[in-house]
Amino acid sequence: MSVTVEHVSTEIRPLRVAVVIGSTREGRFGPTVADWFVRQATPRDALIVDIVDTGTTELPHVFGAPAPAVAEATEKLAAADAFVIVTPEYNHSYPGSLKNLIDSHHTEWQAKPVGFVSYGGISGGLRAVEHLRSVFAELHAVTVRDSVALPNPWGRFDDAGVLRDDSAETAAAALLDQLIWWGEALRTARAVRPYGK
Ligand SMILES: Cc1cc2nc3c(=O)[nH]c(=O)nc-3n(C[C@H](O)[C@H](O)[C@H](O)COP(=O)(O)O)c2cc1C
């Protein structure tokens, strides 16, 4: 089968990235990590960043029940060209609130890249990320290789939310490079041929 490429816009548009905060716990550390990551991303002209916070999104307790309060999150996920999931590790996996958000959506994730910023104890949340990779494969999303992992992050940020050591900045830059490459490639591909059609 051949695909004829016509009217594909060559205009350079910023890539829309939805940064998802996965934890909802009282006193959670997630927003500190997410704010830091957004500051790594915003100097890049090629990106527009939206925040989807599971801590302020009223996800349904009864799965499948109507949840009008999710509409804003759904809109941001649908508009996104790429995602970054900010997740802690809970019992060697990721929080149920994040699974609820993921499972409450389907086409919104499809044929788009996903990057991860994780934190936790000594593992830095890597076990949560490995679980998420298989979940996103099921949703036809593409996970990027490089991620940011922050082991024991609690004392590592100053009062302004800046990491005292800059080792994670290199990891964030690699993640963003890969996310932008895949985000642009897949946006063009979806425009040429809608995914799954
Ligand atoms: C229920 C629970 C389970 C946890 N399990 C793990 C774990 O398996 N591995 C780990 O490295 N840290 C674990 N932690 C530590 C969390 O990763 C850490 O407290 C992190 O800050 C939680 O994210 P939050 O503050 O955004 O809720 C756990 C924390 C909680 C509350």
From TrEMBL:
Pfam families reported for this sequence: FMN_red (PF03358)
GO molecular function: FMN binding; oxidoreductase activity
Residue stretches making up the NADPH-dependent FMN reductase-like domain: 16-153
GO CC list: cytosol
InterPro entries reported for this sequence: Flavoprotein-like_sf, FMN_Rdtase-like_dom, NAD(P)H-dep_reductase
Originating species: Nocardia neocaledoniensis
SUPFAM superfamilies: Flavoproteins
Name of the protein: NAD(P)H-dependent FMN reductase
